[in-house]
Amino acid sequence: MQLIYEKSVSGRRGVGLPVSDVPAAQPLPETLLRTESAELPELSELDLVRHFTNLSRRNFSVDTNFYPLGSCTMKYNPKVLEECATLFEGFHPLLALLPGGEELCQGTLGMLYDLGQLLADITGMDEVTTQPLAGAQGEMTGIMLIAAYHRARGNRKKYVLVPDSSHGTNPASAAMAGYEIITVPTAPYGDMDLELFRQAMNGEVAAVMMTCPNTLGLFNPHIKEISDIAHAHDALMYYDGANLNAIMGKVKPGDIGFDVVHVNLHKTFATPHGGGGPGAGPVGVRRALIPYLPLPRICMDDGGKLFLETSSAHSIGRTAGFFGNFGVLARAYAYIVMLGREGLIRVSEQAVLNANYIRVRLKEYYDLPFDMTCMHECVFSASRQLPHGVRAIDIAKYLIDHGFHPPTVYFPMIVKEAIMIEPTETESKATLDSFIGVMIEAAELAGSNPQALHDAPLSMPVSRLDETKAAREQKVCCEGERAR
Ligand SMILES: *Cc1c(COP(=O)(O)O)cnc(C)c1O
Known about the structure:
Blueprint: H1 45-57, H2 80-86, H3 101-104, H4 106-123, E1 127-129, H5 135-152, E2 159-163, H6 169-176, E3 180-184, H7 194-200, E4 205-210, H8 223-232, E5 236-241, E6 260-263, E7 283-285, E8 297-300, E9 306-309, H9 326-362, E10 378-381, H10 392-401, E11 408-409, E12 418-421, H11 429-448, H12 450-455, H13 467-472
Parallel strand pairs: 2-3, 2-4, 4-5, 5-6
Antiparallel strand pairs: 1-7, 6-7, 8-9, 10-12, 11-12
Helix pairs in contact: 2-9, 4-9, 5-6, 9-11
Bound molecules: pyridoxal-5'-phosphate.
């Protein structure tokens, strides 16, 4: 694909301006005039349309193909929700903060307030802030709330405890909030080792940060016991709810002992995820942590009117501008209302069913380090293919040639040659079957013709890249110069 400047043809135009019928103004001062004409691409409208349309076709997206990226919930979201997000276009978020503004914004504030209530119900928490703009920012907000809680009670705590299967943002967020990290290994049964956890717990632990199901896709059967042990040491339980489509409507984190929860609206609740677009990571807390929530807080008076609380002695302060990523919040609200309680339960059931279908169909062909019922995702290992010189990355690249986005590979780091597949609730059995077919083909090729896997992908403009270098030193090449 040529760059747009290289397509430029001198004299070609996309628009024709009419002859001006306005008299020329005073001539501009000589010093302001260009000495050379501006360097702009010269193209017709059709050149331009084709350029951008062709570029867009190089993008892989859920709208075009299956995208089973584990721990990320790359799913299809109903397009009607895009329409819903635009319904609030006329609202400027500063309006609510002006004198008398609350009166004019009751509908908008009502949507945010109701969304908070719905998420509180889903997670089993007492109040939710919608401010954080991503999962990781939700984690940091949540840990800052926990720190404020302990400080107010005169407890100086030093540590946050995480299992070694945790998402990388967990220890990073806790460290940014000022804590040292204690990592607890995973036991052969696929969850945080209960005995080692017991030994690691002490009075200086501020919080235990977990995701349940964990990044192996497994629900921890000891979770209630873990939260009881944590609470006995005056530590709070933090739930990383980035991917809630495993348990939504089935289990509330609040019911299994968690005190603070963040949710990724851009994974579970209908905002397309990936590509670095806007997200939202609302945080729910138990009553004891409400005084520390970010401001402004949307509150309801006795008459049912909404108002903004803009000052409080204990709040950790503002964590984002205005009320968070408003369009993302509007999509999530519409999604929840559209599906209702029964619909959300079906989302979880379907996500879990799809992941288990793939787990069972592929376990004959790939090593399954933790062979038990999974939740929304399953983690294989390419260790059985390794003796043939075939690694997880080769299988991932082979899938590209067959129209599938690779699953997550090499994460969670506790699984050698990990292949982490999350099919999501929105995929049909037919799609899963064709994916499974290609995965089986790859497993067979590993034995018969490993070179075919090493050569993949063959159908893309670029083949194997040094991925770190490609991300850090982007170099967009022209046609004919196949990047290596
Ligand atoms: C995606 C994810 C996060 C981080 O969310 P971001 O919005 O990308 O910051 C945290 N934990 C888990 C388990 C995740 O899957």
